[in-house]
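Anyone have tokens for Ferredoxin--NADP reductase? Sequence:
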Amino acid sequence: MNKFYALKVKQIIRETPEAVSISFDIPEELRDIFSYKAGQYITIQTQLDGEEVRRAYSLCSSPGSGEFKVTVKEVAGGKFSVLANNSLKAGDVLEVHPPEGKFIFEPGNKAQNYVAFAAGSGITPVLSIIKTVLSSEPESTFVLVYGNRSIEETIFFKELLELQVEHPERLFIEFIYSRTREENAQFGRIENSTVNFVLKNKFKETGFEKYFLCGPEEMIQAVTEILKSNGVPEESILFELFTTKDAAPVETAIDGEVKLTIIVDDEESSFTMDNKKTVLEVALDNDIDVPYSCQGGICSSCIARITEGKAEMRKNMILTDSEIAEGLILTCQAQPTTPVLKVDYDDV
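Reply: yep, here.
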């Protein structure tokens, strides 16, 4: 369930001064395992200074391209992102978990209109979706609203312009820059006025089937609110967080320790835990090999199902109300609220 595979780096592509794309060789025997849908991500596992580090990165390539590529933006004080941008080279081998994630696009058989709001490295899964729409739905259109600080820091700037030239009647891009004023681009950030300009002005005659949002939490919340205020149904809005604020611990009514049972890969483990910790923290403290990646509630790697007891999540931007009602939790955010808690990673 939580298996990683050794993949060789085929190529390192410098996208901006702070971002590189990593292209992988996928052996023929692993092609089915590493097949993916547009918008999904992979988890990369490495050992850095004796510590296991896992990071989730979205695929920027499209499923039909024959490529398998992610993009990594260097983060100040980061671990893997610094390695990727400064030391990683073709021929190196990384441990990679197969693609997963719920921020996906699956092609249909009729013409549709789509729009995406992306900021910074949030363009990564959106580019995969754009390419898939253009190649798989020949009558569909796509509007991209893409915010960055400057042209130099705009990941895939040249590639997006080339796609726009290739599909002038189907791909429309609104570039937005917060640090520089550029011709044929807006100045500022993606905010209410930006969304209203797209929906009520420039594309007011266009009805959109899906709205894809990817970037920091504040942007996603702001865009989601204005979309809803414009009558967009919640089920038409898909989003993926790339950064999020830390959530405060849950205040529970129970005192002392909790009996926690974890089922993963058909093996059951039980122990006591501090109710102020999350399920994932306790699993890792006890060397249980459970699936996880971001540990911040912004991916879906650590989902499990509660089969006994109850838990409350510090933060949830991934699971729907119906999924929570079915007992699903993000274990990196879930604290027990009953003296006994049993979770099953296999039953998701």
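The helical segments are 80-86, 123-136, 157-166, 192-202, 217-229, 279-285, 321-325.
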